Amino acid sequence: MSVSRSSGVDAVDLALIRELSRNARISLAEVGRRVSLSRPAVAERIRRLEEHGVIKGYGVHLDLDRLGLSLRAHVSLRPRHGSSRNPQVLRDRLLAIGHVLSCVHVTGANCYELTIAVRDAHHLEQVIEHLAELGDTTTGVVLSESVHLSDVDVAAWLLQGDH
């Protein structure tokens, strides 16, 4: 197993993480049955993973299409104004614009890569106009998504080691 000793995470913890990643609402008893642990042992391990920050929280997976946000796009942003280069100011402005699902600071020609969700092409144009106030943008419309975050099995990566 290639899990780092310094992480304090073992194969049983990874099995718990895998089950919770698939369904965070699963009962502790059911997790215990799946990983061959008692309910109290599962609860203790999950508590420890939460305390150590390995498990940072639990969330809801939204179907954006059913919410009327069926068009997604990736926008590269190169801020041109001094205030837009401040990460906190940029964050606040992006949240105020809305429709930004994620924003990551990257290397390369552009400083930030955003993922946005909008209703349609007209709405996309409106959001891009707001983003253009912050800097230069380049946009690519998402046609389909082959791998979704909920498909990813990080526990398996750590058990298998680097390829």
From TrEMBL:
PROSITE patterns: HTH_ASNC_2. One of its GO terms (cellular component) is cytosol. GO terms for molecular function: sequence-specific DNA binding. InterPro entries: AsnC-type_HTH_dom, Dimeric_a/b-barrel, Tscrpt_reg_AsnC-like, Tscrpt_reg_AsnC/Lrp_C, WH-like_DNA-bd_sf, WH_DNA-bd_sf. Keywords: DNA-binding, Transcription, Transcription regulation. GO terms for biological process: response to amino acid. Coiled coil: none annotated. Residues 9-70 form the HTH asnC-type domain. It comes from the Bacteria. PANTHER family: HTH-TYPE TRANSCRIPTIONAL REGULATOR LRPC, LEUCINE-RESPONSIVE REGULATORY PROTEIN. This is AsnC family transcriptional regulator. The lineage of its organism: Bacteria, Bacillati, Actinomycetota, Actinomycetes, Kitasatosporales. The gene is lrp.
